[in-house]
């Protein structure tokens, strides 16, 4: 079961450790389940309010799925992804560290989610 650590500089005393129970849960769904105050609005990958930074806790290669076209567009609009980043992600076969919590599905890896 993947361990997801939610952390925010605004809530330093409220680091939340969550365990994803299935491979269909998004970070946002897990955050809601554990009452993590992660900003969100549309829940459909369009507003960008649920922007999070995701890193691997155990420093293994990241797995967590790849960006959808919609997610990629929003991350570019938010200035979190450049053309070079998009090219590098494709070449290195690695996901972006910036993600939309409503779009990223938790895989079988331990991750830190900064919101
Ligand atoms: Fe709008 Fe995730 S809640 S993009």
Automatic annotation (TrEMBL):
Pfam families, per the entry: Fer2
Molecular function via GO: 2 iron, 2 sulfur cluster binding
InterPro entries assigned to the protein according to its UniProt record, in alphabetical order: 2Fe-2S_ferredoxin-like_sf, 2Fe-2S_ferredoxin-type, 2Fe2S_fd_BS, Beta-grasp_dom_sf
Annotated SUPFAM superfamilies: 2Fe-2S ferredoxin-like
Signal peptide range in chain numbering: none
Domain of life from the UniProt record: Bacteria
Annotated ranges, domain 2Fe-2S ferredoxin-type: 2-115
Protein name in UniProt: Ferredoxin
Species, as recorded: Thiocapsa roseopersicina
